[in-house]
Design brief:
Length: 205
């Protein structure tokens, strides 16, 4: 998404709250569709019972097939990007609320209403959020993801360094948008931490 002259503020006009609620709810419901489970079942695999047991693109890639894993990744990213596109291009909401729509999809993936609030970790869905909202950062995020996958045992120091570098890149490229970007990032961080708390517990210093 290329930022234009639209005012980058958090607050919305008097007539917008209903549209905000509707698009955020739509984002959550879209996020609650677990394509990993759907695609895996089409291939006769119960993704909950193989590999890591995580209903995500990476587990499908490893346990079902590379093509299926890529398809799931694209669909998981799209289920965040599509509601954001509507919030941005159709409803013309401030960028903070476009981002919150993406976060709603991320929440839906991690705690899906269709699966009794038991979902995945949200990596692919998060990629859709950042690809749409901060496209210039996306290549760096992909590189950081694969670097962290190759560090062996989860290293707290390397994760912290990667995080600091990514934050510097984000605010370096989008420093003019800090008024809405800072609260968006903070909210995303908190939700991402809660969604991946079991993974973070395994991190060694």
């Amino acid at each position: 998404m290329e930022l234009d002259h639209r005012d980058s503020i958090i607050f919305i006009e008097v007539m917008q709250p209903v549209r905000v609620v509707l698009i955020v709810v739509f984002g959550y419901l879209m996020g609650s569709i677990l394509f990993a489970d759907i695609i895996a079942r089409l291939r006769g695999v119960n993704i909950w019972k193989v590999g890591s047991g995580n209903p995500g693109a990476a587990n499908v890639f490893r346990e079902v097939g590379k093509l299926e894993g890529i398809i799931v990744w694209v669909l998981d990213a799209a289920k965040a990007a599509i509601p954001m596109l509507i919030a941005d291009r159709v409803l013309r909401l401030p960028y903070f609320w476009v981002g919150m729509t993406g976060i709603a999809a991320f929440v839906g993936h991690c705690w899906p209403i269709w699966y009794k609030l038991k979902g995945g970790k949200g990596a692919a869905t998060a990629s859709g959020v950042f690809l749409y909202l901060l496209p210039r950062v996306f290549p760096f995020g992909v590189a950081a993801f694969f670097i962290l996958q190759r560090v062996g045992p989860r290293s707290g120091k390397k994760m912290l360094i990667t995080f600091v570098v990514m934050m510097a890149i984000i605010f370096g490229l989008y420093y003019r948008e800090w008024r809405w970007l800072l609260p968006f990032i903070l909210i995303f961080m908190v939700i991402g931490f809660v969604a991946n708390i079991d993974v973070l517990r395994e991190v060694r210093l």
